[in-house]
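User: My collaborator sent over this chain with a note saying "see what the structure looks like." That's all I know about it. Can you take a look?
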Amino acid sequence: MNFETRNPANGELLEAFDMLTNEQLEQKLSVAEQAADAWSCSVYTDRSALLHAIAQQLTNNRQTLAETISLEMGKLLPEALGEVDKCAGACSFYADNAEQMLQDDLIETPARRSLVTYQPLGIIFAIMPWNFPLWQVFRCLVPALMAGNGLLLKHAPNVPRCAKAIEKLIRDAGAPEGLVTDLTISVEQAGLVIADHRVHGVAFTGSEMAGRQIAALAGQNLKKVVLELGGSDSFIVLDDADLNKAMDVAMRARFGNAGQICIASKRFLVVPSRIQEFTELMVSRVNDLKHGDPFSADTTLAPMSRLDIRDKVHQQVMASISEGARALTGCKPIDGAGYFYEPSVLDNVKLGMTAFNEEIFGPVAAIVAVRDEADAIAQANATRFGLGASIWTEDLEKGEAILRQIDVGCGFVNAQVASDVRMPFGGVKASGIGRELGISGIREFCNAKSLWVA
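Assistant: Without extra context I'll predict from the sequence alone. Here is the result:
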């Protein structure tokens, strides 16, 4: 059994990588333990210096890394370049701010001195997805390193080149051997790593089903876990929305990365006064998208990352149509080489339909008619997911008030749902447990130790 990397634009096999044997895995765990133990005693100036060096490596290798992303999972090259830049920015931000984020919290008590100090947990096992093969890793890795932890990485099996590029880049920046370790291992071996006494926390980004399994394993072994799972984000358009601005964002939020984004807007909830105009404008803009080589400047729609993912999206679209949704454009695979799917718009989507109830991880927009603002809130919440939501209105106070009533981890007024290193990121309900980024994120994999001096 091995990991294979294929070019999603044409389906060609690029390279295969052998799995680690259990003996090789044990050796890597042993080296990782030694590296993490030493790193936990490091001072912030050393950690910061390493993160600045990693940022420089990302900048120096920007083009090569972006091309690896595009070749391996199909992302448009400009989007891949932006992903590399975001990783470099995260390194610089935490290098400059982590020490302040992890300062002791002084607490007033009857004691002479009482405080909470934030200390490293040890080795964090990161199980990461393919859709942002650098950013998802760095979103976990950077705060973990600045908190004094080590990291083991099990990346998605279709992006092994990205995984190995990350490990090499960090070693080239001067990191000790074993501080960040790529593990080319099976699902069964991942279970052994979670259970291993040398591993102290688990970070997972991926599907709801896999997240539930990983959370169960982590719970059985009493390991701290952070999960960032699926989403069915609502994009709410009110009467006074700036429709052109909203549509510019809607196109990026649904069709960027071929729709393969957990925080992509998937359900477009539109009030009666704007729904016809919104629908017509979206169909027109979608029909202008052009699929093709991710390296070409003319391409505006990327391929999907794998054939099985495209097949699942098509099954979900067909199920939705059979349930009463209307296909306004697209809604079928594109013939020829590669894993392309026509950019698609469904309307007449209602609660209970597949396009409403499930996460469609592909370039498919589901338009949902709502009666009014109260119905928009109710329909936004009528899902087991709770990752993000955006609302479009000129009344900013009302927009914020509505977002406070929607059960999500992050809400945006007149902006695309996105992660920002300064803000906590994560979901509620079936969209996850815990937070990444911001002060909340860097403290997730710390021991919040209470000290009381009588």
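A starting point for your reply to your collaborator: The chain has 15 helices and 20 strands.
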